[in-house]
Amino acid sequence: MSQLRKARERARAEVLGEIVASARRQLAEVGPTDLSLRAVARDLGVVSSAVYRYVASRDELLTLLIVDAYDSLGEHVEAVVAGNRDDPPLQRWIDAAGAVRGWAVEHPHEYALLYGTPVPGYEAPGERTTPAGTRVSFALLSIVRDAHDDGLLEVREGPSVSDDLAGDLVAFREIVDLDVPDQVLVRVLAGWTQLFGLVTFELFSQTRGAVEHHEDLLRACAELTGTQIGFAAER
Question: CA gyration radius for the chain?
């Protein structure tokens, strides 16, 4: 690759970074439905046509924001999971859950864009958003895989799995490359969805008046689900 081409790509990446940063500020102010490329142009002090050379539409801008947010969340959780590889798997699960919540609390508008109400009229292109969107899930699932490989995952009987659900789990097992019994996969899915449910309830004020110490609640629930999954508390 020529030096001139590299310089052009760096310049384009810098401009796109500025556009996404401006859109992120706008997201916090007006929400995803009212995102505007013209507003981004005003914020950056350029004419609208200058922005349209890099981003063709509001939907493309939303896609850029979604990918950026997924990558940010995924990178944050991946770093925690990689950093505590030598800890007991139960503690790793609790720490990873705390990392998800910590990112969400620091980035509530981005979290709402990813896991909140769909934006009317917008459909995320899977080929662009899925690779980034699965990073956090694969980081969490890597804890299960490591525990299984290290002999630190207890396999218990139950819950019951219907034939239809067993078929779903075959597909899920292949997607995530996680060779554990159905009963473990069900518990993993329960812990995974409860984690994001708790964070969503907190950020959308669904536990207002019932819970004040959300971080403590999440850690307690992560310990509960991690125990149910079968993670050992010690190495």
Answer: 21
Distance (Å, whole) CA 185 – CA 211: 29
Question: pLDDT tens-digit profile of 60-119?
Answer: 999 999 999 999 999 999 999 999 999 999 999 999 999 999 999 999 999 999 999 999
Task: Return phi, psi of residue 79, to 5°.
Answer: -65, -40
DSSP string, 142-192: HHHHHHHHTT-B---------HHHHHHHHHHHHHHT----HHHHHHHHHHH
Considering the domain architecture, whether residues 140 and 167 belong to the same structural domain is answered as yes
In angstroms, the CA 183 to CA 159 distance is: 6
Torsion sign across C-alpha atoms 132, 136, 141, 146: positive
Residue 28: which CATH number?
1.10.10
In a domain, 61, yes or no: no
Give the model confidence (pLDDT) of 157-174 as tens digits: 889 999 999 999 999 999
**Which range, of 7-16, 53-62, 197-206, averages the lowest pLDDT?**
7-16
